[in-house]
Amino acid sequence: MKPTTPLRDRRGQPMTIYSATEAKNAFGEVLEKVGRYGAVAITKHDKPRFVILSVDEYQANKPARDGTLDVFERRYDEMLEKMGTTNPDAVATALFGRKGKRGRSRT
Description:
By secondary structure, the protein is α+β, with helices and mostly antiparallel strands. Helix content is 45%, strand content 20%.
């Protein structure tokens, strides 16, 4: 097992590294480290090739796939509310001095 890597765990510490052979031979230990620190790196030919993540770490880092548009719509509505309006045309006029469609300006 090598002591350091540029990869960091959730604590910001260098991730524990195992060679593929070490990981195979000490799989229980690998899982214990994943549970404790959130992730470990696996190398092949002395280069990091894989990272094993705990479920918690995976869930915390995976991109949102459901409702992404809803999130942006909610943020947009909150932004309009902070600006004191719910009228997007009023915002466009305030920001750009005129209304327009699909990025085209009216002249």
